[in-house]
Amino acid sequence: MPTIVRVLFASLAVMLASSVAIAGVLVVSTTSHIKPGTQLLQADGKIAPLPQVGPLEGGANILLAGTDTRTGQGGVFNSQDQLNGSSGTGSNDVTMVLHIAADHRSATVISIPRDLMAPRPECPDPSGGKFSGHSKAMFNTTLSEGGLSCVVLTAQELTGLDIKYAALINFDGVIAMSDAIGGVTVCLDAPVNDPSSALDLPAGNQTIKGDVALAFVRTREGVGDGSDLGRISNQQVFLSAMVRQVLHGGVLSNPIALYQLADAAVKNLQTSASLSNPTSIVSLALAVKNIDTANIVFIQYPVAADPEDRNRVVPNSDAVDALKAALAADQPLQLTGTLGVGAAADPSPAAPAPTDTPSPVDVLRIPVATPVASASAIPAAVPIALPTGITGQTAAQSTCTKANN
To answer: Mean pLDDT across the chain, nearest whole number?
Structure first.
């Protein structure tokens, strides 16, 4: 989940840059858990060059895939559950691409549906061979059939973005990170009940964590119209609430919570080599730490019904072209459409959180070797209005999960 990546960046940035002695101890402990990075391969099979170490100049694109593997997962993922899920690498049942604008004033999170039927390019095999391309393949097979590099290459074709960073998170990671911040408070417009996900929540505001948080972001039958598209918009409800909680709920001012959050992330993320060192993470943290929640836009990749299979979707060509053009222009995006089918307007949203309070990252005065131009010196970008067929919400919007009843 991209918010998890963003939180990881902010958390590690605080700890790595702090001059407080105890923070240094925490960094040593946390960074010792970072796993060796996965080498991303280009279409020609060559290793993708690593981004330069140092302050991030310009924008960046980061892919985060959630695997449904049961291998090595404890807790509720017992032997019976393994019969209903994947083993080994697993499938990329959740895939999001975070685009950070070059001026570091806006960010876009694109959720790509697992059931999307679209072309899959030929992907390189780390052993030196090739995974065959397909003119029409289900998107969530890219991880199991071609690895993380194949997910990246396919997502690049779908979005038009050049993705240099990627990470894979498992079920245990979602549980650990929701626990680290004391749970996430979400709004439900009606009771949500999904026996297949062991989820039973009453209406209203609910603080969820652990196994319940995982079941909440995974549920399909309990929200919207019971489809993966409903699950995507339900995840946007969760992620926007998590962003607001981390930025304005005291997490960034709590060193213990920051350590637990960063530690949970690095223990459960398998990253690309470009994300496997703390310096790169700090560079990205400096790029996103001051983005206003109103300029963080969550969108669902635009799709239409697949005429060959009612349980699948295909790209909505016109809307996809408009999205690619908007992303290429690198301007803030303005939603003109509705919320997704799994989300509803909050009837009693809380008062908006202040946006002008310096974060702990600002107060710590992280040293930057080569300062980039200050945001105030860069003219404000003009937002690009997306077509009404593209659904989503901003991180500033207070929304509720729409129950499937």
So the answer is: 78
**H/E stretch holding 287:** helix 278-288
Tokens of 109: 């999170």
- pTM of this prediction exceeds 0.85: no
Calpha distance 403→61 (Å, rounded): 32
pLDDT tens profile 335-379: 999 999 999 999 887 655 544 333 333 332 323 334 444 444 556
- Residue pair 68/85 in contact (Cβ under 8 Å)? The answer is yes
Phi, psi of 192 (to 5 degrees): -110, 120
Let me know: does 317 contact 380? Beta carbons within 8 Å: no
Eight-state DSSP code of residue 220? S
Measured between alpha carbons, how far is 403 from 401 in angstroms, rounded to an integer?
6
Question: Within a 13 Å sphere around the CA of 185, how many CA atoms are in the beta-carbon half?
Answer: 11
pLDDT of 209-237, one tens digit each?
989 998 999 899 999 999 999 999 999 99
- Residues 139, 118: Cα–Cα separation, whole Å: 7
CATH number among 1.10.8.100, 3.20.20.70, 3.40.50.150, 3.30.420.590, domain 2-180+251-336+354-380: 3.30.420.590
